[in-house]
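Figure S7 source data.
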Amino acid sequence: MKPVSFSYYRPNSVAEALHILAQEEEAKVIAGGQSLVPLMNFRLSRPKTLVDINGLRELAAVEADGKVLRIGALVRHQELLAHPLVVKHFPALAAAAAEIGHWAIRTRGTIGGSLVHADPAAELPAAMVAHRGVLVLTSARGERRVDADAFFYGYLMTDIAPDELLTAVELPLPSGVRYGFAEHARRPGDFALAGAFVEVAETGHAGAVTWFGVGGRPDRQEMELSPDASSRERQFAAALAEMDGPEDEVEARYRRQLAAAAAEQAYQRATASGRGN
Amino acid sequence: MSITQGPLKPQFTGARVTRLEDARLLRGRGRYLDDIDVPGTLHVAFVRSNRPAARIVSIDVEGALAVPGVHAVWTAEDCGITLYTERYDVGQPVLAKDEVRFVGEAVAAVFAEDRYVAEDAAERVRVVYDALPPVLTFDEALSEEGRRVHAHRANLFHHTEHETDGFAGAFANAPHRAQATFVTHRQTGVPMEPRGCMAQLDAATGRLTVYVSHQSPHQFRSQLTRLLQMPENQIRVVVPEVGGAFGIKAMLYPEYLVVADAARRLGRPVKWVSDRTESLLADAHARDNRHEVEVAFDDEGRILAVRDHVFGDTGAYPFLGFPGAVGEAGWATSMLTGPYKIPHVSITVDCVFSNKAPEGAYRGVGGPVGAQVQEGIIDLVARRLGKDVADVRRINFIRDEDFPYQTATGNVYDPGSYAESMEQALALIDYERFRREQAELRRQGRYLGIGICTFVEPSAGAESEAGSTPYEAASLRIEPTGTVTAALGLGPSGQGHETTMAQLIADQLGVDIKDVVVIHGDTDSAPFGGGTGGSRSGTIGGGAALRASQEMRQRLIKLAAHLLEAAEEDVELVDGHAQVKGVPARAYSVRDLARIAYTDVARLPEGMQPGLEVVVRYQPPLSATYSNGTHVALVEVDVKTGFVRVLDYVVVNDCGRLINPMIVEGQIHGGVAQGIGSAFLEELRYDDSGQLVTTSLMDYLLPAATDVPRMRVTHIETPSANVGGFKGMGEGSLIAAPPALAGAVSDALAPFGVFVTEIPVHPRQILEWVQGGVHSA
Ligand SMILES: Cc1cc2nc3c(=O)[nH]c(=O)nc-3n(C[C@H](O)[C@H](O)[C@H](O)COP(=O)(O)OP(=O)(O)OC[C@H]3O[C@@H](n4cnc5c(N)ncnc54)[C@H](O)[C@@H]3O)c2cc1C
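Tokens for the predicted flavin-adenine dinucleotide complex:
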């Protein structure tokens, strides 16, 4: 359980990082290392070069202007869940970040790493899709912005190019809607078996559910959310039936049941307090 | 044996003495195998089979040898040691020869400057396989057309039958009969510190020192002596700090022989430490059992006869001296009747080879599976008759007046507290109130349940996975300055023997526990003993410590009496002094006595040898002593997710005289935690092609702190006839927890007709039961 050998860079600026990514073959960014290092130790990932971005403090900020909250790629899960701006504007995101792994993992793992790794059962990719976030990708060739919904392709696959660095995500500040989040994991700290973000309008029944853990990527579906619990149950089941699930049929059925149960809980949370948890 | 005990007022024995080990362990100062760092060491990476069954066509090591930093690459041609079990005529080559028989079997060993290089090179060893159809289940192993795992012999390697006289009549004439098939899936011990071995030849003396993370230093040395064909006094085995063992570290593994042989022949220190994937692939597996059970009972729920046909899958090879399936089936069937008076049994055991990893010992061995059957049939009878599960236990319990009780399986139980432990446990959890609440909550759509397991744990037996050494040894010396050093043949892995043994010794010698040091784990300094396994250390090891310190105590009293010109009966040992009873002024300190014994020998009484040193071996009078207790689990099943939460857990434990209740409770906490893993989380899963798919702790789920509830533990003390009155208790908690937890799920889901017969219980399965209609036994 040892990685193959690799060369290691620790750049001091984003420009330097982009330069290395442009120059070196088979280079990979390392942030918290919580997904990459296990893959390397199993020799499933064999980068020739690691570019350690932990020195790039400019990627570690959380800032809000009047319209968006900007979260730097290097913000750790543990910072995210406790940050006053996140808690204030995106309580469901804060609640979701609290469910990631264990304390030791959250103090290392970063939002950028989680989004680029794109595990279908991870909380943060779904949170970005649910909140209609935009990912800011930078390379020596320039900067581009990609909607979260377009960024995630499928199991561990995204729109990022090998020479690109994810520098930040931008979330439009919500107005007139409330979010709720819930998930089901086998043990606290495990990746979720299934989970959901639910969005409901403060007036009327317009809403959306973003599911994760069922298909290969987070899936946001807009729907009128009935105030009647048994109608909602049917709505959720119908929506989930349309989604691709795991190959194993029994497992797929189980994931859909958990996802439906999570959506109902998330709905309760969204409507009960306006707080995400 | 009559040694005057004197009016001993134990100060330490029975007290919650803080563990002497903890200061170093909790500060991260323990030195484990991997901390041994000798310059010039070669590190080993094993090339392991990725096939469950295949002929080895060729192995090409050239690519690996070309990697800079690689010193050697071995295959079976270079190291031909075979772990051969005569009884079954099966040998396991330490590096696979001609054929591989399970995924994870070591095929080649790479020796390199560090583990990174060794793994780089291991990737470059080219093994060409010719696949064979794997044998993966009992039914495949037993079928006529099935392939043989070992071509020269049948897969069925162990078959026994035992039936009590009159079974057939009792079974046929019973008013009721029911049947169920109990299945437990593969699990393993998963010690936090993985296995490992390091060996080093002393070029000057030719002695080989082998460091190993193991439970039984002397047994290991005996095995090395035989397999390496070296004189016993040329091998020194050192067991450093061990970070958990749970039975799996009592086994002899092929890797150890490769390491030891290489150190000898390559002339460099050699070290191998298992990584977690290797551990899951090739540590001893356990619990791959099926019990087909029929039970006959009367209208009251009295069990009249039980028939059990056991199938055990031991994997590809028998561990030397302990083929896991045989050990498990033996224990499970021998303890089948548990605390109940069941007059008739009919037992058939079939153990087979398969193309899966070898099975060996894991804490509790066949106990948890046997208890699953024993409690399962009680719950089944209760359900069939519509009776309360506690009442059916009451009517079947062995009562105080029945001891010593001979079971239908041939054990003789010494006195215990079976019924009492259950009554106390039910009172602790407030059983009657729970039943009322349960009914009310069900109406609200919440499903809570209680499961009960009253276990009997055979302990301190003559034979166990630690070998067949029916005694334990203690050497004790008082140093010339009066401090005490004891050495035992035990092999602790976190149990706190340094504390418990010191408690016993300090009390006998009337000294402070801080003046007693207990050492173990080095065959150069520890007396030959059995090691740790089979819940023997506290009882047999404690007996040895007690006997050795009693002998020492006699020596001190004799010397003091001579010096004080008093009668021996008038001398007592208190607070580090030997004094004339009630006259503290007429005293010698232990320190002075020690000085005199070593350096002022003219003052010794006639015939007394200089020095203060004894070696004692203690063999208990009973072939085993049986501890007991009752676990009650209270769980809630979420019928929307299938998740089970343990809401409350109580244990009433009886292991005879307690040496240290805190340590006993720690053993119980850990056992229950492992029981939660067994019942709900842990499973080594092979897919249909014979690949192990649970090769990391992402897939092999262990209970986390959040899965383990606060539990309440109380004690009953029914002493054994062993010296000190102790009974072993290392395994009972893991024996009792899985059936208690499985029973609680059955109870919670009774409205759905659910009766759990297979563990671990998966949440997905629970939803299938709840939604897919009735699953019944
Ligand atoms: C035991 C355990 C439990 C876990 N449980 C959960 C869980 O419940 N939920 C969950 O969501 N996650 C979980 N994780 C994963 C954890 O959240 C990781 O932190 C996260 O997935 C990756 O973040 P990282 O910063 O560690 O990224 P790294 O491991 O450093 O990198 C991951 C990938 O992202 C790339 N990358 C990282 N940063 C950037 C960047 N700025 N630009 C471009 N590419 C980048 C890397 O090249 C790599 O491919 C768990 C991890 C462990 C070890």
